[in-house]
Predict the structure of PRA1 family protein.
Amino acid sequence: MEVQVAPLRAWDDFFPGSDRFSRPDFKDISKWNNRVVSNLLYYQTNYLMVAAAVVSIVGFLSPLNMLIGGTVVVLMFMGFVWVSHNKDILRRLKKQYPTSFVVVIMLSSYFLISYLGDVMVFMFGITLPLLLMFVHASLRLRNIKNKLENKMEGIGLKKTPMGIILDALEQQEDSINKLADYISKVKE
């Protein structure tokens, strides 16, 4: 299957006002996780644009440190994903606590970068865009188009870069299983 780039959503849809934002239900982690995954898939190109702007500014101010920081984070992510696919206990932890998994990657990257060079480049160039994405995805309420796009990605009708990343974090399987259960119930 060919990877498709998701369309850039209208900025007034991405950040329209307080009526489309709400605090997530911290007691229902599954529902909050579903909201974050859905928003990450739906607004992925908008998130990429915001992250590219932040990375460009920081990269312009400190290009070598930004390159080192980005390389360390990518290598750490790939290493943790590889290890979690080979160790069942880590795989279960990654699936149950994806945010913790990302935090461990970021903390490991932070310590390695602090050993190699400039920590502030890491904080502003890498962590800030990820934090902005997570906060927006957590607070933004989903709409019908958002849910439909998420289902299409979940059942494999389309494949996007964010879908590939979420697959690596094993956050897509639940939606596929839920859709399969729903289809089997409808057939009965």
Remarks:
- The two ends are 31 Å apart (CA to CA).
